[in-house]
Amino acid sequence: NEGIMKVLTVLGALVGLVYIINGFASLGGYSFLPLIINTLIMNTMKT
Which keywords does this chain's UniProt record carry (predicted)? Predict the structure, then answer.
């Protein structure tokens, strides 16, 4: 199903973003700010 593939793709992208964000968080001391920014970017790109 296309819906299942979309969900898996989004989950995979989120997991990748979490790893990247954790790397930046350990360097810059930020935690949720990059996550919020990335989610907003992803939401605007979808529409």
Answer: Membrane, Transmembrane, Transmembrane helix
5-34 pLDDT, tens digit each: 998 888 888 888 888 777 766 666 555 677
Return the residue matching tokens 């605007």: 44
Q: For the chain, how long is the longest CA-to-CA vector?
A: 40
Can you give the pLDDT at residue 27?
66
Residues 29 and 7: their CA atoms lie apart, in Å, by 30
For the chain, how many structural domains are there in total? 1
Single-letter code of the amino acid located at 32: F
